[in-house]
Every structure is written in structure tokens, then in C-alpha cells.
Amino acid sequence: MTSRDSEILFGIRPIQEALASGKRPIHKLYLLRGRNDKPVQEILKSAKDQGIAIYFESREVLDRLAGSSRHQGVLGLLGAASYATIEKLLQTAQDRREPTCLVLLDGVEDPRNLGAIIRTAEASGAHGVIIPQRRAAGVTAAAAKAAAGAEEFLSVAQVVNIVQTIQDLKTKGIWIYGLDAKAKQVYHQTDLTGPMALVLGGEGKGIRRLVSEHCDALISIPMVGHIKSLNVSVAAAIVLYEALRQRSK
Question: Which 8-state DSSP code applies to residue 207?
Fold first, then answer.
């Protein structure tokens, strides 16, 4: 049903956001036969206005297409995700007249973590997320589901080399902060009001040594319990909202 250039996205909110943003083409829309409530009517109208092919199917068919029963009676066959350029992310900050705030992910492999980070980044006012092309999660349907539509409003750039990207950002006056559990500098004692990029490492591994060496500073989140690490999406949320708090003053 899907190919390398398309994938199934399901759920009321993700489909609503995909229709609203228009960032990814929806080739086909599948709706549960007999469902006629307000959210579905709104989705149906929007799809018709955009000329999208609509099919009404049984719950069994939708379960099979989604590979899950949690589709809420709405599925879309979407074209491949398109990624923004670094310049687009920087332009977003300039257009909003705000100091740049970016998130760089060094090897986050779980699409649910990627989606959660995109959702938090968008909600906290960041200007974009940067991910590597290899050995990392991309903006797939699973990531979009976790992002709950935020990926339609926050640009994501995909780069070949994170270290080179960091070096390029530095030439543009952007300060690079790497989140490292061993760092002595604490995140809430760090000035996050200027142009910045927050680097987060992959699950279980953290930031790679070569990447950390190119950061301007390494910062940490205090851990006073028995657990010595946080989920990467939770860690991102803590620091990004501290940046928002400081910038809101």
C-alpha cells in the first residue's frame, strides 16, 4: 500500500494538521464507513476542497492499513516528508525578530522521541530541529503521530554532517550548547537568551565525543534521585522551557 515515497498517517489531529499545513501531499484519504461526527465532517470538507481522493472503508480494512486499531477512523496516504534548509530555519528566527533557537539531534533513533521533541520545540517557540541523514530517526508517520501535528508547523532540516553544521552555525554567531549529564555547568545557571542551538545525543549513548568537542559549552540537568538519566525528549523539554522562561523576561 505504501512505498519508499509515501506512508500512512492516521488519527484525527495528525490528519487535520496535515490538511491545514499542506506541507506534505495527501494522495488518498480513508474514512470509517458510517462515521459522521463533526471532526470527520471537517476533514471530509477540507479533503474535498483540496481535491483529495476519498475512500470509505470498514473498520477491518482501516485496522489492516494502519497496522493498528488506534486510527480513530481516519487515515491518509501521504507523500514523503520534505525537509527544510538550515537557511529556512534561520530565516524563521529573523522573520519573528527573535534570537535563534534551534535543536540539533545527534543520533536520536526512536521516531517517538523525535516526534515528542518536535512537539516540544514548536510549543516552546524554537525555530527548527536539525537531524542527521544517517543512523537517526526521520520524520516518518510514527514521528508525526508523536508530534501530534507540530511537524506541520515547525521546520525540520536534515544534514549530512552534524559537526560541519555546528561549525557553520558558529560562523553565524550561534552559541552551541551540548546537553551532557557529566557537565558541571547547570542548564538553569546558563544564559540561554542569545542565539543558540541545543545539541541532544541519542538514546543511551548521549552526544558523540567529536560532537561534544565542537560545542561551545556543555550543560547538565541536576539529577538527585537514583535514576541518573532522563528520556531525551524530557531533557529537551526542560532546557527549551528554561530558554523560553529566560527569553520571556
Answer: S
